[in-house]
UniProtKB/TrEMBL annotation:
PANTHER family in alphabetical order: AB HYDROLASE SUPERFAMILY PROTEIN YCLE, MONOACYLGLYCEROL LIPASE
The protein's name in its UniProt record: Alpha/beta hydrolase
InterPro entries assigned: AB_hydrolase_1, AB_hydrolase_fold, AB_hydrolase_sf
Upper classification of the organism: Bacteria, Pseudomonadati, Pseudomonadota, Betaproteobacteria, Burkholderiales
Pfam families with a match to the protein in the record: Abhydrolase_1
GO cellular-component term (any): membrane
Superkingdom to which the source organism belongs: Bacteria
Positions of transmembrane segments: none
Alphabetical list of SUPFAM superfamilies matching this protein: alpha/beta-Hydrolases
Record's signal peptide: none
Length: 299
């Protein structure tokens, strides 16, 4: 099994497929490197795809100390994978926890990101829900430890923003549950407490985000309630961003709507590579329409 070693001596499992410009795929909390299979199959026809399992997710290492899990550490791990594979710059695609990591990687190492795809991002950022999010994060960690991954996976997979996958693709949802049930319960609990529960709100990063001059595609489902407003905030804050909202879609966008997800990301990458994913035209931000000095109709 191919592994790289991070700068703090954690082994990360990865899979590399295809040739071309590199794309690194960063998975969500309830996923792992296998979550990107539909994307790797599609994009590896013309790109070099690197999918890796985050720390805490076997076959990657599962550090025992909570000090080894944080939002900044998750972002640095992206760089460690790229370093080990001798990749200077890459397109970075992340979902949920992976989307946060991709965004923070862009903030920390903007010169290394060809582009950022930030999907399903926002949980815990809204001030009115922050305390509830942290409390639920610790409860989820407790449940992984109490029930184990096989016992808790079916419960977690029927969350409000995941039943959409169950309804659209029962077979795909069952595979999602099976993969989640194989996760290391201790690694999941430490990730939930160390990364999820402690990550900063997007709204506290506004000034830094306004200065992030990297092409960004923001994606969310219209039934992923706690990601909708944060996604709008990111669209209004990131200078070179676009926002795509998929209808009748929950949190696991790439699994629910793989064709739409793939095509949207592909179009985005092509626009970036053509130099056409530019900053918003300042005229588009004017609040009052311009009116001609002489409003009389012309012949």
């Amino acid at each position: 099994m191919p592994h790289i070693q991070t700068d703090d001596h954690v082994q990360l499992y990865y899979e590399a497929t295809g040739q071309g410009a590199p794309i690194i795929w960063v998975h969500e909390f309830a996923g792992d490197h296998r979550s990107w299979e539909a994307q790797v199959r599609f994009f590896s026809r013309r790109y070099r795809c690197i999918a890796y399992a985050a720390r805490g997710y076997p076959p990657s290492g599962v550090p025992a100390s909570m000090d080894d899990y944080s939002q900044a550490r998750a972002a640095r791990d992206i760089g460690c994978v790229l370093d080990a594979l001798r990749i200077e710059r890459a397109h970075v695609v992340g979902l949920s926890m992976g989307g946060f990591a991709a965004l923070h990687f862009g903030l920390m190492f903007p010169e290394r990101a060809l582009s950022l795809t930030i999907a399903g991002v926002g949980y815990g950022s809204e001030a009115e829900h922050a305390d509830t999010f942290r409390r639920l994060s610790h409860q989820v960690a407790d449940q992984f430890e109490a029930l184990g991954s096989p016992g808790f996976a079916p419960i977690y997979a029927e969350g409000a923003s995941r039943v959409q996958l169950q309804n659209k693709d029962p077979r795909g949802w069952a595979e999602f549950v099976e993969h989640l049930s194989q996760h290391d319960a201790a690694g999941a609990a430490r990730t939930m407490r160390g990364v999820q529960a402690r990550r900063p709100s997007l709204y506290t990063l506004q000034e830094a985000l306004q200065g992030l001059d990297v092409p960004a595609l923001i994606m969310t489902g219209d039934e992923d309630d706690h990601c909708l407003q944060p996604s709008l905030f990111l669209k209004r804050t990131l200078p070179r961003s676009g926002l795509l909202v998929l209808p009748k879609t929950g949190h696991t966008i790439n699994l629910e709507e793989p064709d739409l997800f793939n095509r949207a990301v592909l179009d985005f990458l092509h626009s970036v590579e053509a130099g056409r994913w530019t900053a918003r035209d300042p005229r588009a931000t004017q609040e009052i329409m311009k009116v001609a000095a002489d409003p009389r109709p012309r012949p």
